[in-house]
Amino acid sequence: MRRVIVLLVLMLCAFAPVRAQGAQALTFGQSVDGRLDGTTPTAAYSFDGLRGEYLRISLRVTRGDLDATLALFAPDGSLIVRRDDSPEGDALTIQLRLTASGTHRLVAARFGHGRGTTAGDYTLSIDRVGVSAESGSALRFGDTVANSITNDQYEVYYSLRARRGDLITLTMRLDSGNLDPLLQLVDANRRILVENDDFESTPDARIERWLVPEDGQYLIVAGRYGGAAGTTTGTFLLTVDRVPESALGNTPQAAVRLFPGQPDEHAITAERAAIWYVFEARVDDLITLSMNRISGTLDPFLVLLNADLQELATHDDIVDGQQRDSLISGYRIPSDGLYYVQATRFERAAGTTIGGFRLTLTITGNAFDTVEPDIERIAYNASAGGVLNAALPRRRYAFYGNGGDTLTIVVNRVDGDLAPMVTLLDEGGATIVEGSASSSNAVIPRITLPKSGLYTIIVSRSDGAGGFLLAVAQRQ
Asked: Is 15 a domain residue?
């Protein structure tokens, strides 16, 4: 793994781009037209290239007596190659493999530059004709490379530039030999993010539909099970794929990445009844999801689910039957992790309304940010114990409740002669209900919370001292 970390640092540092000031950007597979003459004897272009890519750069004179030259410069500004006279007469061609990643500068000029005498029109094109399979090369989505694992080379490395929200699939397929492939993806912080050995009991390794968390460079490590201590060898094919934009949102596995404060717009159609989203949240985060219709007849319907795709909350109309937007407001996240949103329509797949919508995620903070430090926390279907006496006559517990939830709150004496009491307060500190009490327990048998928010339970004593157990149970 030390070799992985060292190579990672060297490779990822190489991607710091050199800005080609005033240069026209070139796109692979497309051509641009220009003219060189006494007024404009040179023209500068730039393109982003990756280490290991094979390129063909061509300049063809289309009119005039232009005697053209081409010069290619590396990201660090050093000259890579210069072409002048071509055996093809009116065309110049550069074919090469890039040895560094970053912004390259290409300068087209007439021979003699400002002192030259020729002039004419030209067409300039740049094509990516392949990628090297050599360890250390940079790959793009759609690439397939072949390489081998031997006892002298038990792992090879490739870099990949990906954007936050990309769903990527890496496949390392056995081609020959007895190789037991092992595939790893490493980030710029030297962490192994995900790895796979035998995918679905096949001899291949596959990282499927992995969600990219941040923009940046990632390192693909293709090796064998056991690493240096392994014994298998052979050749393999490595393929790098990305789920196309058109497929994003169709399933939870291809969910659209949702970020707080960054609305996303999509559409529900006759063929597409729902769009899936995924976001990350921490325990006790308060979230709000709003789905607003922006076109068509759409009647929005929102579903919030956990990582196991169990439904946590749903919502149809903000004002029932009138305002046809959907809102899940002030929902408290129960645990750290990923959460899914199904943005759909009333009656879901059986519905008929269609149209565009805007989905917005807001995280307003932690549910317990305003709770005083000496107040303990308690959750639904949980218990807490303590002691009350003359020196400590009451204890306070805070919980976050959802409007419409029905609870039973019980305080039982566990020792001593304590006569307990229990009171439920709202977020403003006003009493909602006081429990009925006996000599050994106090109970609020059934209370339906009026709205979502913070609530406080006060456990106190009417007489005596001793230990108690508080339990909060959610009723169905």
From this structure: no
